Amino acid sequence: MSIGNTHSSTMRDTGLDVKGQVSGEDIVNCVDSVDFTVLEVGTPTMKVGSGDTVSGQNAKKDVYKGFTVASTYNLGPQKFHFGAFYWMGWGCEVSASVYPADFDYPNSGLKLDRDSAGRTWDATGQNSYNPKDFSATIPPGNDPTAASDRDDDPSPNGVIYDADGPGPECANAPQNYILRLRANFKYFATIDIGETHVRCSPILSLFTRFSMKQMDDPNGTNWIIVDPPDIQNDLQAGNGTTNMTWNLQ
Q: CB-side exposure of 103: number of CA atoms within 13 Å?
């Protein structure tokens, strides 16, 4: 096998021997060898549909469920919370296959990372809140999910997971006030080598776009998804990117 051309089947299944020579003859007892692992991570895949649920083999599935106000494994647009902090987000799960499936190297930091760009607009695009652009270089990403919320261990099925629901805060606002999220994401696997972050998978491009309205009179924090959408092609998520203007034009 050409070293590095094919991923390992198990940990440290690839060897390299080095022999000392003088005038083409091996030097007795001058041999060194090392066993190592050739890591490969496939292109990340996603689940973002309203009919999708977090994978049963995602070890952090209950962490995701705990963030949802509805206490559900369902993905798609919905309200999330962390204690008293509430936000509206689009629940999505990204996963990637790891080879070898039993990859486990101490302090290696294998994980799914995320870089994001987005805009949150008011109803007619007069104001934009918390604008964000993609990083000039990756890794690392500018929008990673917390380590406590990711499943970074590929065992037992050789897959790592990241389930999250990024989106705007459900802040106090007047009745019928509308916010419109337009967000693009890059998901990719990375591994830490000392203090260096190395991307070890292709990049998955993912977008989410939806609008939300505050319902309480005269002010409040009772936000709902605008469904059916009042902007053509709003309330969607999937592969690729979205225009980040308020009206998607």
A: 25
Asked if residue 22 belongs to a domain, the reply is no
Give yes or no for a contact between 183 and 166, defined as CB atoms under 8 angstroms apart: yes
Distances (CA, A) of 39 to 100, 114, 122, 147: 7, 20, 45, 21
| Amino acid, single-letter form, for residue 65 | K
Model confidence pTM above 0.90: no
CB 42 within 8 A of CB 200: no
Confidence of residue 212 (pLDDT cuts 50, 70, 90): very high
14 part of a folded domain: no
How many independent structural domains does the chain possess?
A: 1
Please state the φ and ψ torsions of residue 149, each to the nearest 5 degrees. -105, -5
Full domain range(s) for residue 132: 41-239
Q: What is the mean pLDDT of residues 182-204?
A: 94
Structure tokens at 81: 């919370």
For the segment 131-176, what is each residue's pLDDT rounded down to a tens digit? 999 999 999 999 999 999 999 999 999 999 999 999 999 999 999 9
List phi, psi (to 5°) of 62: -75, -25
Residue 204 burial (10 A CB sphere; 0-12, 13-18, 19+):
buried
